[in-house]
Structure formats: C-alpha cells, structure tokens
Amino acid sequence: MGPVKLSSKKKMRNSLFIVFIILTILIGRIGFIQFVQGSNLRLLAYEQQTLDRYISPKRGTIYDATGKTVLAVSSTVESVTVNPVNIAKQDKEKVARALADIFELDYETVFKKVNKRISIETIAKRVDKEKTDKLRVWMQENSIDKGINIDEDTKRYYPNSNLASQFIGFCGSDNQGLDGIEARYDEVLKGKKGAIKRHADAKGGEIGTEGENYTPAINGDDILLSIDATIQSIAEKYLKEACIDNKCTDGGNIVIMNPKTGDLLAMATYPNYNLNEPYEPYTEELKAAWDTMEQAEKTKNLQAVWRNKAIADTYEPGSVFKLITASASLEEGITDTDRAGEFCCTGGIVVAGVRIKCWRYYRPHGPESLRQALMNSCNPVFIGLGQKLGVEKYYSYLEKFGLLDKTGINLPGEAKGIFLAKEKAGPVELATISFGQRFEITPIQLVTAVSSIANGGTKIKPRVVKKIIKSETGEVQDMPVETTGEVISKTTSEKVLSMMESVVAEGTGKNAKVAGYRIGGKTGTSEDGVNTGKYVTSFCGVAPIDNPQVVVLVTLYNPTGEGGHQGGGVAAPVGGQIFSEVLPYLEVNQGNQEEVEVKEEVAIPKITGLTIQEAEKILKENGLKLKITNEPECLDKSTTIVQNQTPQPGIVVFKENEVFVDL
Questions:
Q1: Nearest to 464 by CA among 582, 320, 311
Q2: What is the C-alpha to C-alpha distance for residues 245 and 568, in angstroms, rounded to an integer?
Q3: Is 44 helix (H, G, I), strand (E, B) or coil?
C-alpha cells in the first residue's frame, strides 16, 4: 500500500492553523512596536528625517555698578558640525583629514564621526573665525557644499581676568554658569537657544529647502552689579599686600557695603584666580607642582580658590562683636556711653566659677566708662553687660541683627552662623559670646549687622545686582532695596557710632585714621578654633561717622608675619588704606579737616632686635611711644630685647601713637 494521504479537509485545517499562528505573531509584533517601542521609534524617525542645528544665544553682559566697566561679555565665535549621511563616501576621508588639520584634532576620532550613521555630529565648539574661514576656503576649493555646517556661537570672556573672581564666577563649556553671579543669575543671563530644522529623506539626504524652519535665538539679559570696579580694585590691591606682608597662610577677604542700600561695593578674596582660566593653577607653587599632582588634589586646590570665603566660611569675630553687645545694652537702657567709672577692669572676671581674663590682664584698665571700655576693647565690661542682658534678651538681639540666620544674599554657597542653642547657653557661654568668641559667623553676616548700626538702626539685606536690562526690549528693571524693620533706635545707633569714632581716634583702631575724615571702627582678634595656634584678625570701619556711606570689614586668616596677629596692628591699617582711597573716590566730604591737619604723620621705625632703651630712644625721636604688652615685674631696659612690634615697620601713623612690643 502507498503512503496515507491527508484528506483535503485536514490539509486546509493545518494551513489555517499555521496562518493563524503567523497572524498572531504578526499582530503581537505590531502591538509591541506600537505600544512598547512606539515613542522611541518616533524619536528615532524624527532624528533620521530632520537635520536640527541649534543656534546659541549670546549670554548677557555683566557690568559693574557704574555701567561703564564690562566684567563679563560673550564674544562671537563659531561651531562646526557635520551631517555624515550628506558627505559622499569617496569624500569622507579627505573631509576628516581637513577637519583634523584645521582644528588640530585627532584624525581617527574625526574619521569615526564622519562615518557615523546619524544625522548630525559635533566636530569643534567655540572656535575662532580665523579657523572656520580656513575651512570655508577648503570647502570651496574642494567643491564640497553640503554635509559640513558652520554656525555662529558665543564664548564667555572676562576682560579684567582676576577682578572679583569669586563674586562673578565662571561658565562651563556649554556656557552654563557654574559659580558666583554667573550661576545664581544663569536663567537671566543665558537666553534661549534658536534652531534650524530641515527635513530629510529616508537615507538622510536633504529634501531641498522645503519644510525648513528657522527659530532665532533670544539673547540673555544684561545685569548691572552692585560691585564698583574701582572700589573692588582698591580692596583687592590692599588685601593682597596685607596677606603677603603679614604672611596670612589662609588668605583673607574684604567686604565693603553701602549701609543705606545694602549694596556690596566690593567683595574681595585672596588668593583669587583668572576667570578666563578657572581650571589652571593660580600660584607659582601650584604651577611648579601641577603636572605631578593627582586629579583629586588638583580639584581640591581649585575648589578652595573658587570658594567665596566672605559668604561661605564662618569664623569667630572676636572683639568686633562687642559692637553688638554695646548696641543691645544701650537699647535696653542698662548703661550709657559716658558714665565715668561705671565699670572697673581688674584684669578678669569670674563667671560660674571660671575666671575669664581681659586681654590686658597683666595691666588692668581700671575704672572705665562704656566708651573707654570699647576703646580699650576690655573683655570683662562686655561680659558684665551680657550677664545683665541675660540669655533670652541677648539671643533676641542676635535674631534682630540677623545673626542666627543667613543674610539671604543672592549668591550661591552662603553659610549660616554657628551658635549654641539658646536652651544650652549657660553663664560661661553667654560670657564668651558677649566679647565675640566660641561661636562663628560669616563676614557677610557681620558687615550686614554693623550696617544696621551705621544706617540708623534698620536691618538691611545685601544687594548684589542693581539692575537687569531686558535684551529684547531694552527695558530696565531696578532691583529693590530690601529692609526688614528696626533693630535698634536711631539714638542708640548714634551713640555706638560716636564710640566707634573714639576707638579710631584714641583707642585700638588708631591705625585706621585718615586725614580729613571722621572714621569709626572696631578691631578684633580671635583664635581660629580651640588650641590651634592660628588667629583671625579683623577690623570693621564706618565712614563718615556723621553720615555713614561705607562699611568696611577686613578679615585676615592666620597672619604669621613680624607684625603679629592683633587687629589694631595688622587689620586696622588696611582699613585706613582703603578709606583713604574709597572716600575721595566717592566724593565724600571731609568732615574734620581743621582738626586733623595739625597732626603730623610718621612712618613706624623698625625696633625689633633692639634693647628697650634703644627702642624708646628711636620712638621718642619719631614722636611715638613704646608700650610693653607682656612687661615682667623686673625689667632691665638696657639688656631686654624687643622680639615683636605692632604696627609693623613702614606703617604710617599719627605722631604720639603707641607702638606695642613683646619682649
């Protein structure tokens, strides 16, 4: 018998089953493509069928407060892209070779890009027009008119290089702000990208000019900072000199504020860096070691110099903080400025069984008024005032002055002050706070608090941008001056300013005097941490006293030079130098010309290494007095040698000033 043949019905049934299986698979595949892969495939189709090139907007220009000095500007450059599918196969090698040669790129990398099966690939960003012109000539000579795109782009440039570097910040390779003003105002400055869209066929070839869509870029808005380039330059000049002369191992900063508006006229940090080369070493020492450094070490050094210490780093303010204690005490009516003998310094004060010394414990100040206590920077007096105020009341003033919170300055990275919680503050903690130690604040917090004293008692918010200029309309938007109520009365403000003037006229701030101007201030010295052997020295000044327009805070970190680390000898002279140039620049009227003109100035002579007897003779010849800070009970002036002196040699002061020496 032959093989059994399948019946026609069975054949048909099997065929239908196979067809059913195939249809089921096809439907399943279609469903998978439609619902699972649909969105991704639509995106791929769009990329294949369109040739998109983006047009970079011009980033807004940053001006100083006068509007005359450009601090950051975007210059026109060009970017080069290719459409690999539009470059003929026989031309790919020579195109890659030309692009690599003109833009100094690796040939193999460029060749791979030219051979990719994608619609567009970037070859070079933000290159000078000189190079793209070479490419244009090459394209013309080789009859290549498609597949290579040259589009206008922008590149950020900082005409003043290092000026206000930590304040302004810089941009990344994509023109996005990465630090400072550039980062905080990125949305204002960056503008909106434009685009050129052109449809392509299935192979990626251009379909004529049909369907081409051009969307223009919208340039970013311009801004006017509160920073005045001239005042910033003055601050940076004297800060650099001070840090080098006093061997400040951890640098320093200077903040200058208009107390009436909150405008930051200058915010300088040393060392600084070149904004046009933010990733390059910024000191000679780093340049020498840069090539041998690990990347992590490079990054650490760069991040350190990018850091704006005036807002990001906290420190113990020391005796400058006595201004806050004095203000609170006067406002509460527990003391007044000139009650003779109201206080008596015996060299220290016992608080909860702990004796806290005055800085001049070896030669107590004796009977004092509040004015004299501030002039002498006498710790026990301010400890006593803190005790009278009490923790609850004292902390209420810390809050009023804004010292328990951030100032809200519109810059990235602001730190908050570090205070012991009110509930945990005992008598000893209150005592140390009262004269400025064992807590930390930022320089911007302190200069803002002192500005509240200087402007008549109103709490003010720091302002970094004065105006925004819209690129499309030219409309000018003024940024408001922000105040948040009264901290102290105008009467209290005037009393504190009067005492600050005495500090500069006759107290620890003598070295901040400037002929012809009424200046007030307070010096400060504090240990940088507990038992570190490092110090922070500072001076906060206000001028002119009768109508304050400028508050200056000088902060120097760990001065290790011959001049010592006392605020009066190291930081106050810097304040005086700044006032001597800033006040005339601002056309501030001279308020005490007749009084000061009769006083003679003299440069401090060098007396280190001499005997006390020799030093006294030289100082007397120069109209100066010698004061010994650590005088022993038995002293032989003919043999005892001067080890250190404050102020340093060369500092110009008025005659009759004292020169402090260590033996």
A1: 311
A2: 15
A3: helix
Reduce the DSSP state of residue 75 to 3 states and report it: strand
Give CA 637 to chain center in angstroms: 49
Cβ-contact 305, 282 below 8 angstroms: yes
Contact between residue 409 and residue 446 where contact means Cβ atoms under 8 Å apart: no
Residue 230 has phi, psi (to 5 degrees) of -65, -45
- The strand pairing partners of 458, in sequence order, are 486
3-state secondary structure of 273: coil
**Beta partners for 463?**
263
497 vs 519: CA distance, rounded Å = 9
Tell me the C-alpha to C-alpha distance, in Å, between residue 535 and each of 1, 48, 270, 429. 115, 65, 17, 20
Provide the 10 A C-beta neighbour count for residue 360. Answer: 16
What's the token pair of residue 368? Answer: 């004092």
Distances (CA, A) of 367 to 356, 431, 640: 18, 20, 31
- SS3 letters for 311-372? HHCCECCHHHHHHHHHHHHHHCCCCCCCCCCCEEECCEEEECCEEEECCCCCCCCEEECHHH
Give the predicted TM-score (pTM) of the model: 0.79
Q: How far is C-alpha 642 from the geometric centre of its chain's CA atoms?
A: 40
Whether the CB-CB separation of 317 and 448 falls below 8 Å is answered with no
Q: Please give the Cα distance from 351 to 331 (Å, whole number).
A: 24
Q: Assess whether the region 51-225 and the region 600-663 belong to the same CATH fold.
A: no
Q: What are the residues whose beta carbons fall under 8 Å from the beta carbon of 346, sequence distance 6 or more?
A: 364, 380
What average pLDDT score do residues 178-206 get?
A: 79
Q: Which of 319, 329, 434, 493 is catalytic?
A: 319
Q: List 191's β-bridge partners, or say none.
A: none
**pLDDT tens across 251-277, in order?**
999 999 999 999 999 999 999 999 999
Tell the CATH topology of 600-663: Trypsin Inhibitor V; Chain A (3.30.10)
**In the structure encoding, which two tokens stand for residue 631, read together?**
């005088």
Determine the pLDDT at residue 596. 36
What class, spelled out in words, does domain 51-225 have in CATH?
alpha beta
pLDDT of residue 592: 46
The 10s digit of each residue's pLDDT in 584-611 is 999 987 764 334 344 577 777 888 888 8
Categorise residue 248: left if φ over 0, alpha if ψ from -120 to 50, beta otherwise. beta
List the chain domain ranges.
Answer: 51-225, 600-663
Per-residue model confidence as pLDDT tens digits over 351-385: 999 999 998 889 899 999 999 999 999 999 999 99
* 418 Cβ contact partners less than 8 Å away, ≥ 6 residues apart: 314, 439, 440, 441
The token pair at 60 is 């807004």
Are the C-beta atoms of residues 557 and 536 closer than 8 Å to each other?
A: yes
- Report, as an integer, the average pLDDT of 313-320: 96
Please list the alpha-helical segments (H only) found in 365-405.
370-376, 379-400
**Is residue 143 flagged as an active site residue?**
no
- What's the one-letter identity of residue 76? T
Residue 207, CA atoms < 13 Å, CB-side half-sphere: 16
